[in-house]
Amino acid sequence: MTQLKIKAKMIENIIEKKMITWIILIIIIVIVVFAIAVYNGLIRLKNKTQEAWSDIDVQLKRRYDLIPNLVETVKGYAKHEKGTFEKVAELRSAAMQATTPGEKAKADNMLTETLKSLFAVAENYPDLKANQNFLDLQNQLSQIEETIQQARRYYNGNVRDFNIKIEVFPNNLFAGIMGFKKFEFFEVGSAQEKENVKVEF
Fold first, then answer.
1. What is the pLDDT of residues 100-148, one digit of tens each?
2. Is residue 194 domain-resident?
C-alpha cells in the first residue's frame, strides 16, 4: 500500500513537472510569436517610411536640379542681384548635403525663403516675367512644390504610425531590444513657410 502511494506520488510529480514544462513552453512560444509579429510589423512600417522618404528625396533633387536654370534665367535680366544668386547657390548646396529629415527640412526651409526673394527680384523685370523659359521653369517649380507637399504629408503620416507603434505597450519592450528608433518628421518651419513658394505673377 505504501509502495502504491509512493508510485502514485512519483507519477503525480512527473505529471506536475510535465505540466509546468508545457506551461513554460507555451508561454515561451506565445512570447516568441508575439515578438515575431511585432518585429515584422515594425519592419513593414519602417520600409514604408523609408520608401516615403525616398519619394521626398527624389522630388527635392528635382527641385535642386531646377534651381540653377532658374537662377541663370533671372541672372540674364538682373545681373546686379549677385548677392541673391550667391545665397540661393549656397543654400541649395547646404540642402543637398543635409542627410537627416530634420537637417533637410531646416535647409529646405531656408532655401524656400531665399527662392521667394529670387521671385521678388523677378517682379521688377517685366521682360523676365514674360520670358517663356522663365515661365516654364516657374511652372515646373510649382508642380514640384506641390508634389513635395504631398510626399511630405505621406511621409509624416508613416512616421507618425511607426513612432506610435514603437511607443505603445508592450511593443515598446520589444522595439528597444530590436534596435528600432523613432523617425524624424519632415516639417516646414513657420506658418509663412508652410505655404508653397509662390511662383505665379
1. 888 888 888 888 888 888 888 777 777 877 788 888 888 888 899 899 9
2. no
Q: What is the CATH number of the domain that holds 161?
A: 1.20.1440.20
Pair 159, 49: CB distance under 8 Å: yes
Whether 186 and 132 have beta carbons less than 8 Å apart is answered as no
Q: What are phi and psi of 195, to 5 degrees?
A: -85, 150
Average pLDDT, the chain: 84
Q: Is 39 part of any domain?
A: yes
Helices marked H in 76-131 — which ranges?
Answer: 82-97, 101-123, 126-130
| Count of structural domains, the chain | 1
Amino acid 12: pLDDT: 81
What does the alpha-carbon distance between residue 79 and residue 100 come to, in Å, rounded to a whole number? 35
In a domain, 23, yes or no: yes
